[in-house]
Specification:
Blueprint: E1 4-5, H1 7-14, H2 18-27, E2 34-35, E3 41-44, H3 45-59, H4 64-76, H5 81-119
Antiparallel strand pairs: 1-3, 2-3
């Protein structure tokens, strides 16, 4: 059986706030978080793994709306695997374009630093 975590523990583990975890549940990004007899949320290790993936999507620039679309597809099950893969491939392409642009900008900055060093 998977270990269970309180919302406070989940917040500490994921680095998200309790408010954000509740918000993610409210908008449907976190589906099916269990509750104990007192009605308190009980996050499983699987829930935490999903939250960690959501964090990666967010940190790489995916919008909440797109994350919600991905989450909705995930909730529909195996029949949506292709659509989810396509979403992730599209997101990957955006990230790779951003990385190339960042690398070009970084190279330009390095050249400017080198130029200033020659002037010193």
């Amino acid at each position: 059986m998977e270990k269970q975590f309180t919302i406070q523990q989940a917040a500490i583990i994921t680095g998200l706030t309790v408010h954000t975890l509740r918000y993610y549940e409210k908008i449907g990004l976190l589906d099916g978080v269990a509750r104990n007899e007192q009605g308190y949320r009980q996050y499983s290790e699987s829930d935490l793994a999903w939250i960690e993936f959501l964090i990666r999507l967010r940190e790489t620039g995916m919008t909440i709306a797109d994350m919600k679309g991905f989450s909705d597809l995930r909730s529909e099950g195996i029949s949506t695997v292709r659509a989810r893969r396509h979403m992730l491939e599209s997101h990957q392409e955006k990230i790779e374009l951003q990385m190339r642009a960042l690398e070009e900008n970084l190279e330009s900055i390095k050249k400017k630093i080198d130029y200033y060093k020659t002037l010193e």
